[in-house]
Amino acid sequence: MRDVLYVGQSGAALVFNQVNATPGQSNWLCGQFSLTGDATGAMLNSVSVMLGGTYDSGVPSDLQSTPFQLYANSSNTFVGASALGSSVADPGSSSDVTFGSLSDAIPASTRFYWVTADISGTATADDNMNGTVDVAGDLSISGGTLGTSNYGKLNAGADASLPVELSTFSAEPVADGILIKWTTESEVNNLGFFIESKSADTDWIEIASYQTHSDLQGQGNTSSSTDYSFIDVNAKPGQMISYRLSDVSTAGEVHVYDVIQIALPEAPKETALEPPFPNPFNPQTKISYQLAESGLVKITIYDMLGRKVSSLLNEEQRAGSYNIYWHGKDDFGRQTASGTYILRLIAGDVVKSQKVLLMR
Hints:
Elements: E1 14-15, E2 25-35, E3 42-53, E4 68-73, E5 82-88, E6 96-99, E7 104-106, E8 111-119, E9 128-132, H1 135-138, E10 139-142, E11 154-155, E12 164-174, E13 177-199, E14 202-209, E15 217-222, E16 226-232, E17 240-249, E18 254-263, E19 272-273, E20 285-291, E21 295-303, E22 308-317, E23 320-326, E24 339-347, E25 350-358
Antiparallel strand pairs: 1-9, 2-8, 2-11, 3-6, 3-7, 3-9, 3-10, 4-5, 4-8, 12-13, 13-14, 13-15, 13-16, 13-17, 17-18, 19-20, 20-23, 21-22, 21-24, 24-25
């Protein structure tokens, strides 16, 4: 006897990956198995699946009404698969869900089957589901038998290549906002990606896609590793944000990956320019500063006579904490002489200064 483990996109047990209440997911791909018939033309009449896992089947439930459905296709792709029989209510974990009245012909060239579930908006990331199929007792076949060479062939979707094999997906605060990064190990018929965000104030909102950002366009078909990134410049300091990554195949099929959460640090309470370090210095010194508000920021080096030596920064920046370095050179790249210099920061109406000593 062989069992099938229902798996999610990452190859582990199906995980709903919904950190907070979200719109439900319809036809979530739980798992796959395939059958090969003999020359007499076997018919699949029913399939029973033993459910397991830690999902909630009470009230509220992690599953929508009559959530389970069986699909079939003559090719090993869910795109174009047809629903068999009727959708089935959740019998609860450790119980059998049975798909009956199927009358589906099993060809000698193999028939592929998928079990899907409709996930409710109350499911959370710690919920999971798995299932097993006992070939001997859980498949009802008539009009023939399963092919000898593939009798009981069950799998966890390994035969169905995922359009994108994702190896990393992360987010981190940067000067401009939140940097979202991911790496693919291979891609098959991949048009590209889109990114959605969700906060306490908003539902899932698409913030970027391969159609609006060329950096998110897929590689089509490749077996090489590819790195992608996107900066969410609209993230607000101190706000907890969830990000969700999806890819789109050339057939229009969408695959949703894990959800990650991150908070952009709170904005500083006041704009400040810290004493440079080291001081005295040679060959460079670090200049740290904090911005209470976003806006145009200028950092300039002057000599003791008030003459400008170097313009280190002149650009718009978000509220936050930053570091910049001065290497003891002027605007033309020439080494400046030993002596005391003035660092001046201008941010909006705020002007801050510090002294620094260069020793050659």
